[in-house]
Amino acid sequence: MKLRLILGDQLSLSVSNLSDASVDDLILMCEVKQEATYVKHHKKKIVFVFSAMRHFAKGLREQGYNVRYVAYDDPNNTGSLLGEVKRVVISHDISEIVLTNPGEHRVLSEFETWYNLLGTPVTLREDDRFLCTPREFSTWAEGRKQLRMEFFYREMRRKHHILMDANEPVGGQWNFDADNRKPAPRNLSVPETFMAPMDDITQDVIDLVTVEFADHFGDIYPFNFAVTRPDALQALDLFISERLSLFGDYQDAMVQGEPWMYHSHIGLYLNCGLLTPLECIARAEEAYHQGHAPLNAVEGFIRQILGWREYVRGIYWHKMPEYKTLNALGANRHLPEFYWSGQTQMNCVRQCVLETKQNAYAHHIQRLMVLGNFALIAGIDPDEINEWYMLVYADAYEWVELPNVNGMVLFADGGLLASKPYAASGAYINKMSNYCKGCSYKPTIKNGPKACPFNYLYWDFMERNAEILSGNPRMGFMYKTLGRMSDEKRQAVADDSYNFLNKISPDEKV
Ligand code: FAD
Ligand code: DLZ
Ligand code: SF4
Predict the structure, then answer these.
(1) pTM value?
(2) Which residue of 5, 7, 28 sits with most ligand 2 atoms within 8 Å of its CB, as the best mutation to test the pocket?
(3) Phi then psi for 174, rounded to 5 degrees?
(4) 407 and 358, same structural domain?
(5) Whose CA is nearest to atom 36 of ligand 1?
(6) Helix runs in 196-324, H state only
(7) Phi/psi-derived region of residue 147, left when phi > 0, alpha when psi is between -120 and 50, beta in every other case
(8) Residues 6+ away with beta carbon under 8 Å from 383
(9) Residue 444 is part of which domain span?
């Protein structure tokens, strides 16, 4: 018989190593310490992954497959993927181990050793749930100095014939961002996110995680994530019917007490396999053609999945393992304690951390322009902030987390992914959110004890990295502005930044 190992992010019936599965094969799924603790994942993420795994295994059994499911607290659980595969190989007559390429380089490197360690043939198959293979991406990337997402995205639109009018983009433009990204009006009434019912399987997992992962970050309750494909499809439907039409308009808006906004909240389902990218894209495209959502929203949403999601995965496989070691700006400050506790007077950071803790979710602009922007301009060590992003979000897997952090947020790849760092002062956060109203600092004050730390840290970041960044044509204007600043002003920026950064290092409350 063949052994088919299904990982916690391969929960799709269409996954390639199940495509020719027969009832005579053995399908192995295992909850292992190795995967649950290589970073100390948010408790809610572990509940989500384990419960989704258990539901998926149940579904396979109901279809007649022979499934060996090893629960975390099984006394014989070896704690590792190899250990569990070895137990099967020893006790069964296994002719071949059939795997689908994993989402993380770390796991792929491990799989590649298995034939030598086990002596049983190992076959690795493409993960064809993605719309661009690593090889196709590398072919596209070869010879290009800069790998701009926008050009990749256009090729993906053409290749998959999405939002196309023959050879032209629907609406005559590839990108409608000029119509998007408005701040939220005061009286906005955001619809509730999808809330899945909880069953006994999830309750069992919650009991397990409460005990076994007590020292991990995050809240388990409330637990409303879908853990089955039918529920994940309902979450998608709810997004399409209630939020998609305003997705573009408020894509970059942040409102205190509204963690979900008009985003889709499907990233965790896509990444573990409960939903497939093409079905999400098709539902959005259909909503446009039926007149239920405008083109700026639909194109913007599709670009995230067909463009950004595939593009960051391409970058990951094209550049790993070196990509993980990059630190172009030489950032080396320790991650401040408030990334865990939320205990800071910076209201924007506090709100985003506390929502992350409660929901294992923050929307893109919170991740990028608040939590990421702070890490960038304060010069936080890439390894420490990457570990943080990897463990706090329910949708985090290294193939998507790492390029977003090292490329988009930290500019640690020296500009391979982003043409310039996404650094911003308090003015941006004030424009796009209402956080500043409840803050001890003032976004309009540039220096001194009441000044928004993002203001002086922004200029301090520019000073600190002038050698690397001042030649960047997209930064020219900012460096001209810096050059025109008086010596007193530059000194005030340096002093305020020095004092502030010295306080966060020994974790004083700032
Ligand atoms: P929506 O805003 O509704 O977008 C729809 C879908 O598009 C998402 O579900 C996702 O699949 C895709 N998408 C959107 N933006 C991106 C992007 N930049 N990269 C890849 N896919 C994208 N996304 C993850 O899936 N896992 C991560 O670990 C992750 N870490 C991130 C870390 C940082 C610092 C930043 C700036 C972004 C990160 N993202 C990550 C991308 C994005 O923030 C999340 O995909 C999104 O917030 C998930 O919420 P949603 O499903 O409501 O997305
Ligand atoms: C995220 C995760 C967790 C928390 N636990 C498991 C697990 O116990 N067993 C498993 O097969 N997969 C788990 N996963 C998902 C894996 O970490 C993921 O498959 C790899 O990182 C490769 O992308
Ligand atoms: Fe954040 Fe500055 Fe606004 Fe406070 S004033 S919420 S620190 S941007």
Answers:
(1) 0.97
(2) 7
(3) -80, -25
(4) yes
(5) 368
(6) 200-212, 229-242, 244-247, 267-272, 277-289, 295-302, 310-319
(7) beta
(8) none
(9) 338-504
